[in-house]
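Kindly inspect what follows.
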Amino acid sequence: MFWQEDEGEKDFPISDAVVDVLFALKGKRIPVDHAYALSQAIQAQVPWLTACPEAGIHSIHVAGSQNGWERPAHAPDQYLILSRRTKLRIRIPREQLDRLRTDLEGKTLDLAGCSLRIGEGHRRSLDQARTLFSRHVVMKPQQPEAQFLREMVGLLRAMKIPVRKALCGKETLLTTPDGPLPTRSLMLADLSPEESIRLQQQGLGSHREMGCGLFIPHKGIDPVVKKNP
């Protein structure tokens, strides 16, 4: 964990060059380990998507527990139960928004035997959140946590994003035809508005088409630190 107090912020004009598009979903369930299947299904409908450097496909996320249901482990034979509020989120250059909606709305995807119908998509601007979280950032196989964190700090500094507070989480293996892809979650706090937007636009590391290195706003790092002193 890295921790350095903030030195203040400067005013920053919002950049809306990259946005998220949230699509309604209709389906019963999807595999917990669905990142690769989702990526392939969407690229079959939107083959131009990965040619956009800023584009990324977020993994589909549901609440950790609901009505007594507990989120299952990240395993090939486990499933997530979808609710009416579950959304598909795709990060895209704003200029490609209408094209994306035209290519995806009304389509039915097959995720490892699970049917998923894509509904209407709505634009959501990126948030200038001071704390960002990525569920999956690609790491080297069996890379120690401290080494992973040092590597991420180096990548961020190369992007001119100084690391003030950072906390990495559990390792998750994503299934691909080339073998398991090791990833780790990462939380960054005390970002300036400009740094926050830039990180969300550029991402961190590879495999954005599988939701890796894509950051979303988080409520804050302090509660997590208090739980893990």
